[in-house]
Amino acid sequence: KNNSFNFVLSKLLIDLFFYTNFCKKNNVKAFMTSENYLPISTIMNMLSSKNLLKSFSFQYSNMGRVSPIMQTTSNVMFTFSEMYQERWSKHNIKPKKFKNVGYIYSSSFPLIKSKTEYYKNKFKKKNEFYITIFDENFQSNEDKYGFFTQNDFCNEIEKLVEYTLKNPNTTIITKSQFSKNSASKCCYNKKLEKLIKNKKWLEISVGLSRNIIFPSEATILSDMVIGHAVGGTSSLEAALFGKKSILINPYNLIDSNTSLYNKCNILFENLDEALKAINEYRNGNPDYANLGNWEN
What we know:
Blueprint: H1 3-25, E1 30-33, H2 39-49, E2 54-58, E3 76-79, E4 98-100, H3 109-113, H4 116-123, E5 129-134, H5 150-166, E6 170-175, H6 183-186, H7 190-197, E7 201-203, E8 224-228, H8 233-240, E9 245-248, H9 258-261, E10 267-268, H10 271-282
Parallel strand pairs: 1-2, 2-3, 3-4, 5-6, 5-8, 6-7, 8-9, 9-10
Helix pairs in contact: 1-2
């Protein structure tokens, strides 16, 4: 017996009964989500299988692999491009139809570009090299299943602080996934405090929980962008926004995106190697002219 599973299944069926009546009573004809792992997504797909409504799903992340709970049987799934469709098609579990719509947030680019003058007037310095950093949402140091901990995050922050101090014409811009994970809150030290005070370290953040600033907005001034290979959605957005964008992979992640990344000069083993490559680019080494270019 599996009492836990039986409870979840029973609750799912009770919710199915409720939403069937709810949708009929309120004339609900369509349901859309990107969060396929939620129970309500499963319920709505069950209703769509009975032609009570149409269910839609859309891709929101640059996923290198899709776990079982992220799969969907929706009527239509909107994806970035055709290459992602196989990832949502496993063991005959897949949407009834795929439709490619491009990167889902690219419609925000014109509005973000309109903020360029604001950022230039407020932060831009002559002959300054700007590096934007996208963090990965880290786990607790005590989480035995976490592969990227707060200590790992702070270790990278310390390296960036030292890099900035050794390279005076450098400013770091950080955009955390969650506001609580900003470097000034999680990795405080005197050197970082000094850089923030001198506006050599800028933290772009809006929101009490999730940082709702678009990744591309944090790259407006950037000469180079660094992100993590896991997920990599922010780095993809930066590249589509027209910025040089590189990835670090300290956990040796291998997924469907890795082979694509290896075709370009964008993937590095760790932050140290990425910063060395940036120095080569800054020094005018022709072998690094295409550093961060995803169009190769």
